[in-house]
Amino acid sequence: MKKIGDIRIGIIGSSFRENITAELEKRCVKTLRVRGISKEHIHLVRVPGAFEIPLVAKKMAMQRTYDALITFGAILKGKTYHFEQIANECARGCAEVSRAYDIPIIFEVLAVYDLRDALERATRPHENKGVEAAESALAMIKLMSSL
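RESULT FIELD:
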């Protein structure tokens, strides 16, 4: 099993709705640091929007440097079908990369009907999606190394 000090995490966040992404990242990184992951082993990458996340996840997975990838973003339902296209393709793309490269991808790209819902999930002290992403990544790394 991999030692906590050797774990490397890649975080991919969308610049679109950056205030939400930044909150998720902040709480995620804080949790990882508290759990013993060094700052040098956490690599943050920004992409323009959620649709670009799977491509960057693939590029990072191909490096075989990271033990897990975490994705953050917020997609808000508007008046067109665009919301569904972006949310579905982002999720599908991340799942494909995860399976193709045997790397856990923790998917916290929030698809919401109201911007306040995303902000709440990113900032609340309990059931915070950034904290949950960090915990899920560490749990999956442990599980994957035991299989």
